[in-house]
Design brief:
Helices cover 45% and strands 14% of the residues. By secondary structure, the protein is α/β, with parallel strands linked by helices. The strands form two sheets. The protein has a six-stranded mixed β-sheet, with helices on both faces. Strands 5-7-8 form a three-stranded mixed β-sheet.
């Protein structure tokens, strides 16, 4: 299990049925990303590729923030490294978002407080974002002497909210609040903090009503469609996935449960 491989208590992982609850657990540092936390996140999302007993991932931060970005105190000597060392550090954190993208389970980010810099990237790398009224997002990199285009932010953001607003946020590094974020479609909904977990659970419950293969292939199709060359390429992929779903052993159960107006009971393969 993941718990045996985590390097410290900065990442808490708990499986509840088919939902994996992942909590960034450095509340005294606003869940800032140190090297251990980056390594643990990267390994966890890589391992999830092979897990059939986990179908949905809930991602959240402990305390009053989701993630304040890179832990600058730990990285105080950042500019003193050589090019190879800098590239290694850059790739280590970038691979967290790549692993999230490849992860076949839907990832729901539950954002409260700041999602800044690397925390913003992790939120964007999730499939769904729920936010509390106090949630704020920004590409902090440009305020630190760096380019704002980092850790996949310049890939995700214009695809989600359009190039004009994305350019505004990246070129200024300004914060965007929860209300504007939901208006732009950056987050799915704004939820009171004391109701966040309940609404997240209701969303998970709806996702888990899909067959295991149907849920995975839906995430896969959504990701590939963003980069597809055109409509015909997307439809070819959709056709292939529908055939795979029909041939899946759980397809009949899904149909029968729908007709009988009951919750489906799917067979899953652990491992």
């Amino acid at each position: 299990m993941w718990e045996a491989r985590l390097s410290e208590d900065s990442l808490l992982v708990e499986r509840e049925g088919e939902v994996l609850w992942v909590t960034l657990n450095r509340p005294d540092r606003l869940n800032a990303l140190n090297r251990a936390l980056v390594d643990d996140l990267r390994q966890l999302f890589r391992d999830l590729h092979h897990r059939r007993d986990v179908r949905v991932v809930a991602l959240r931060g402990a305390g009053r923030a989701f993630c304040a970005g890179l832990d600058l105190k730990e990285e105080a000597s950042y500019s003193n490294r050589d090019v190879s060392g800098l590239l290694d550090s850059q790739r280590n954190i970038a691979e967290v978002v790549i692993a999230m993208r490849r992860c076949p389970q839907p990832i729901v980010a539950m954002v409260q407080g700041a999602a800044s810099g690397g925390g913003f990237a992790i939120a964007l790398g999730s499939d769904v974002r729920l936010a509390t009224p106090d949630a704020i997002f920004n590409a902090a990199f440009i305020k630190l002497g760096l380019s704002a285009c980092d850790i996949g932010v310049s890939y995700f953001l214009p695809r989600m909210i359009g190039s004009s607003v994305a350019s505004e946020l990246l070129l200024t590094g300004d914060f965007i609040g929860a209300e504007r974020a939901v208006q732009l479609g950056l987050v799915s909904r704004v939820v009171d903090a004391d109701d966040l977990e309940r609404q997240a659970r209701a969303m998970f419950d709806s996702m888990l009503a899909a067959t295991p293969v149907g849920l995975r292939l839906t995430k896969e199709s959504l990701n590939y469609s963003v980069d597809a060359q055109g409509l015909e390429a997307v439809i070819a992929m959709e056709d292939r996935n529908q055939v795979l779903c029909v041939k899946d052993n759980n397809f009949d159960e899904g149909i029968n449960a729908f007709l009988e107006k009951r919750r489906p009971v799917y067979a899953t393969r652990a491992g």
